[in-house]
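Researcher: I'm preparing a figure for a lab meeting and need a structural model of a single chain. I don't have an experimental structure, so a prediction will have to do for now. The sequence is pasted below. Please return the structure as tokens so I can convert it later.
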Amino acid sequence: MQIALREVHDSDLPVFFRQMNDPEALHMAAFTPKDPGDRDAFEAHWKRIRASDAVHRTVLADGDVVGSAAVYGEPGEREVTYWIDRAYWGRGIATAALRELIVQVPERPLYARAAADNAGSLRVLHKCGFRVTAEASGYANARGAEIDELVLTLEA
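Model: Understood. Here is the structure written out token by token.
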């Protein structure tokens, strides 16, 4: 399977919106928008982030839009994030996409956060060189509760 990253196109946004409304994926990600079904909030969010200095990419698998990946935040505190359609989980797509993203954004350190019980995402981050550097907790909208999360760092 050929994995590639490209700039986000307007036509990707409806796909992202559908992907971010999968109940199982939302539960796994945990830290999601308060109301992922709010299309106006989704559009406003994407308008803001596309106008920012964040690096946002569409993830393609054999030419199909399967998710997104990004680096955002202030220099020295930048974080990675990614979302892959659940239909494509377990195929190495998130790992390949994140590896490419961190090549495209060579600044270090980079940070990531994941729900402590999100084994899939933690595996992706570890394969890409991120290491757990802190434990925290936060309110997870998708679970309606405070949960444990891990903070990971990719050093130079």
